[in-house]
Amino acid sequence: MKYSIEVLKTYNIHYDWKTIYVGINLDLISYVEISKYAVEFLTNHTECENSLILELAWGAG
């Protein structure tokens, strides 16, 4: 069973890139969630110009 980051939000659980990484390694979250988190991250960090995060966000479309 795969989880989404929405579950973490629902239960008010802090998450970040490390959480996403562990979730992927344990096969608990799908790769789509990486793109969703990248979009969320860029929305909250508009000054970010990290090309890798920008590339991940493009996968959400």
How would you portray this structure in words?
The protein has helices at residues 5-10, 17-25, 32-44, 51-58. Helix content is 59%, strand content 0%. 15% of the residues are buried. The chain has 61 residues and is mostly helical. It has one domain (5-58).
SSE topology:
Layout: H1 5-10, H2 17-25, H3 32-44, H4 51-58
Helix pairs in contact: 3-4
The helix-and-strand class reads mainly alpha
* Overall mean pLDDT: 92
Percentage of β-strand residues: under 5%
Distance between the termini: 23 Å
Largest sheet: none
Number of extended strands: 0
Rounded to an integer, what's the Rg over CA atoms?
A: 11 Å
- Which shape, going by the Cα principal axes? globular
Helix content bin: 55-70%
Spell out the helices and strands N to C: HHHH
| Oligomeric organization of the protein chains | single chain
Q: Please, how many domains? A: 1
**Number of helical runs?**
4
Low-confidence stretches: none
Brief write-up:
The chain has 61 residues and is an all-alpha fold. Helices cover 59% and strands 0% of the residues.
Main attributes?
61 residues, mainly alpha, 4 helices
